Structures are given as C-alpha cells and as structure tokens.
Amino acid sequence: MLFYLLLVSVASSAMATSLYSRDRQAFGLCYEEDCQSAHFSYNPFGCHGPKEWQLVTSCWHDCGGRRQSPIDIRTRETIYMPGTLLHFENLCTRVPGKIRNNGHSPHFSTDTRVIALTNVPHRGSDKYIFEEIHFHIGKMEGKGSEHSIDGEFYPMEAHVVFFNDKYENISIAKSKQDGLVVIGIMVEVSDNADQAVKESLEPNTYDTDLDFEKTCPCVKRSDNCYWKYCFCRLKNARIMSTLMEKYFYIVREYVPPQNNETRDFVHLTEFISPVDVLPYDWSFYMYDGSLTTPPCSRNVRWIVMRCPIRISAEAFNMYKLVQDVHNVPLVANGLRRPVQENRLPVFRNFHWKTFGEETPYCPDED
C-alpha cells in the first residue's frame, strides 16, 4: 500500500519538474559558469537532460563528444581476445560500507583499499581499487540497463566502480586516462520477493534443475543463431537484495549536503563486496568508453559481463521510490543515459557455446 500511494504522485511531480526545466531554459538559466554548481537530470524534456549535458557547463563538453558510453554491444562484431581472465585480490573479504543518495542515485561505497581488480586487459600490472556499487533503472520497467546487447535491454544494470591504485582517490583518478575501470552487470528482477532464495548446490557445479538464462534469443535475432546454445547460470543476488530492501528505504529522501565538505552518508551495519553483484560466469565484453554521467570523461575501461544476476522484486520496487534532487521518484524519468551512437571496437574473452570461468565461492554468500 505504501508503494502504491507513493507512486501515484510520480506523474504530477514529473510534470512539475519538466515545467520547471522549461522555464529555466526559456530564461537562459541552465548554463552554469561554476562547474561545481552545475546540475544534470534524466528528464528528456528539460535543458538539464541527457541530450543537453554538454551545454550545461564548459566542464561537461565531453558529453557531446566521441567515445561515449553506454553503447549497444553488437555481438556479431565483437573481437575474440584470448587469455584474458579477471583477477581479484581479497574478493571474498567483506569491507565496511556506507550509502548516500546524491540526488541522482543511491551509491554503496567503501573507504577501504582492501579489494582490488587486477589483470585488466591492456592495463599492464595496474591494480584497481574497489570504490562503489550503484544501479541504473529506466522509466520503462523492462528497459532499465544503460548498455544493451544486440538491442536487448534488462530491467536494471549494476555498476561496480574501481579506480587506479596509483592515485590517491577516485576524484583524482576520474581525470586520468588510466584512472577507471567499471564492471557492468545486467540485472533481472524476480517475479516475487520470495524467488531469490538460497541455492543448495555447491559452487562450480551445474544441474539441469538450475535456472539458466538464454543470453540471446535466436528467434528474435536470426543473425546470432550461431551462438544460440549459449546459456548462463543465473545468480540470485541474495545479499545485495537484502541491502537494497533495507537501505534504499532509509535514504529514500534526498537531503542536500550542508556544504561541499559535508556528505550525508549512512554507515552500513553489514559489510559489502563486489561478489554481491558479480554473476557466476565471468565471461565479459570489453571496450574503452566514458562515464555515463557528467562530466562524461572518456577514460573508462568498460567490462560488461555476458551473464546477468537477479534481485528481489521488493528491492527493485524500493529503488524506484528513491527520490532525486527535486524530490521526484527515480522511476519518473528513469536513471539511464540513452545508448550513444558510437561504433566502438568491442572485445570478448570467451568462445561462443562455452561456459566461462566461474566466480570463486565465498562462504558469506550463504
């Protein structure tokens, strides 16, 4: 009932936000000289919307440039890249976390430098520190992922953000050419909140009773029939579902920071890890792109996992109620940048019709 009552105000709130943006546009109030004061939104009708980001402030000019993300991954055009497996340090170690609604989305983050990603393709021996996990959803329930695969979208997309260990923090790394790696994971939603239950099988085993997700429906895309036999073992992200159900309600309302030095974080009583959203199968696509939010810096090595995960319906519904800077629920305008019309080279680390390397089993997942 609470969910229903909160959603009935979405349409009117979204309309008010749209009118507000159009008024500002009419009076030339959208441009910000001060980059730190600039604001963006996902409202497609306002002057702060995705198509206008490069015009809001001079610091965001990359948003209108080349090599922008997200993209549609055309699997038929991907290039096989042999011998590339992801390596992590301390992946099964859970670290203290916190969450904050920054007015655009709630982010789970950590201040530790314990968990790291290594063996990133074409990044040599560089080590990347785990920084945060956040999600993207859409205005249309079935089209929430930012990336698409052969034109197919998922209800959500999780982003696990890492920054290069050679830099003191992510703020510095964001401006460096080798600064960031982001792992993108497609997210399915359970039919009901009880579906995301504990799996009984041991790790690294397959069984015909398990839920497998067909990665590319041959009946829809005849040109991809050559890999129609490729399936994914679908992981129920139980721990992440629980965290989302609990903390997205706590940070549902946007609270502006007191000043530039103060951020209103809520510290988690639980610990977090990238394994909370990583799929079982570590097969991935890779390309060089950009941040999908301003300033749209073109320094992101994207690793988009081939296989999805699944969260509970309750977690998904709770996320849709989180409010943006105008106190409008995220579902009103969605939280995804449209696919950019870039034909960037995309690589893959797997052969068709094969299973990839599986995520190591972490006891705390139970």
Kindly report how far apart the N and C termini lie: 31 Å
Strand composition percent: 15-25%
Radius of gyration: 20 Å
**Within the CATH hierarchy, at the fold level, what is the topology?**
Carbonic Anhydrase II
The overall number of domains is: 1
Low-confidence stretches: 2-27, 193-210, 217-229
**Helix and strand sequence:** HHHEEEEEEEEEHEEEEHEEEEHE
What is the number of beta strands?
18
Look at the structure and give the mean pLDDT. 82
Please tell me the CATH architecture by its name. Roll
CATH H-tier superfamily? Alpha carbonic anhydrase
- Helix count? 6
- Largest sheet, strands/sense/barrel: 14 strands, mixed
Structural class: alpha/beta
CATH class: Alpha Beta
Please state the oligomeric state of the protein chains shown.
single chain
Compact summary:
By secondary structure, the chain is an alpha/beta fold. It is built from six helices and 18 strands.
What characteristics describe this protein?
secreted, 366 residues, 18 strands, disordered N terminus, signal, Carbonic Anhydrase II, 14-stranded mixed beta sheet, alpha/beta, globular
Describe the structure.
The protein has one domain: Roll (Carbonic Anhydrase II). Helix content is 14%, strand content 23%. It is built from 6 helices and 18 strands. The two termini are 31 Å apart. The N terminus is likely disordered.
